[in-house]
Amino acid sequence: MKTHLSLAAAAAAAALLLTGCGTTEAPAASESSTAAEAITVTDARGKEVKLDGPATRVVGTEWNAVENLVTLGVMPVGVADVEGYSAWVTAGALDDSVTDIGTRGEPSFETVATLDADLIIATTDLPEAAVTQLEELAPVVVVESANAKGQIAQAEENLNLIAEATGTEEKATEAIAAFDAAVAKGKAALEEAGLAGKRVAFADGWVADGKVSIRPFVEGALLTDINTELGLVSPWEMEGDAAYGLASTDVEGLTAVDAEHFVYITNGADDFTKSLTDNSVWKSLPFVESGNVHRLADGIWMFGGPASMTQYVDAIVQSLTA
Questions:
Q1: Do 226 and 313 meet the contact criterion of CB atoms below 8 Å apart?
Q2: How far is CA 270 from the centre of its chain?
Q3: Quick one: CA torsion of 276, 291, 294, 272, rounded to 10 degrees?
């Protein structure tokens, strides 16, 4: 949907063609209805991005944007790291038509150029130089990658912006309503189970070079914000980064955490807890001794949009109340 001629110029050319064929001039209403399809959106940069109409051939450079497109019923033509996305994000499955455009941090401009995209969705995590190069191929809308001052509101804002650019506002409203309903239902279930106000620590962990690393989702993280909405309390006292609300610790660091439950997500083989089976520090932690360590299902994207957020709500409530 690349703009080479203005709508006015296109209408003028059509009028000349009709005159040459000896036909009457097209009704003025036709021109106005065509013009009405044009869309201008303001992205996270404060930049106005003009589109000829609702975008249908869309490329996504980051997984949360891709998930949002699928949520809105728009199957992207290009996605960064299709294999990784398919492993980590199950809330928005891709079909076989999608082309892999490289990594999230370094998309292949050559591949994107072959896709005839009428819109590219990027995030503020993508370097400005890369965004500038992509703008030579198609209009680019940039969404905020994350915002530790209000992750839920930011996720909903991103979905609404993409919906505006693709003409799918109704589906965005439905997705946000589904999340709100899941939170209300989940909060009630936790209260009924006597879990309201419980101190629940969420983190992800992995093993590299034989060493266990733990990444706490502290105040300002998306999943922590959701837990708060569910009536749970975060026990993490450390400070996270300004965008994602993520921190870093190790097994010894968990001894300072006053948590009644520990919840985590991994993918595939659980090397994280397997490596801690014989770890005396891990085994001494209160939530381990009481059996309150919960692994959620694979494929719940921890930095996703409302669809993944709803998926997370259902999973953590089910896990804590089982």
A1: yes
A2: 24
A3: 0
Q: Is 178 exposed, middle or buried (0-12, 13-18, 19+ CB in 10 A)?
A: middle
CB-CB neighbours of 261 under 10 Å: 22
Q: 196 CB contacts (<8 Å, ≥6 apart)?
A: 187, 190, 231, 232
Question: How does pLDDT run across 162-173, given as a tens digit for each residue?
Answer: 999 999 999 999
d(CA 136, CA 108): 13
With H, G, I as helix, E, B as strand and everything else as coil, classify residue 101.
Answer: coil
pTM, to two decimals = 0.88
Tell me the per-residue pLDDT of 88-110, one tens digit each, with 9 for 90 and over. 999 999 999 999 999 999 999 99
Rg (CA), the chain: 24
- The token pair that represents 274 in the structure block: 């397997």
Structure token digits, residue 236: 């993490």
Phi, psi of 190 (to 5 degrees): -65, -40
Tell me the CA end-to-end span of the chain in Å, nearest whole number: 50
Angle, helices 306-321/169-192, rounded to nearest 10 degrees: 10
The Cα 276–Cα 187 span in angstroms is 32
Token pair in block for residue 102: 């490289």
Q: What is the largest CA-CA distance in the chain?
A: 90
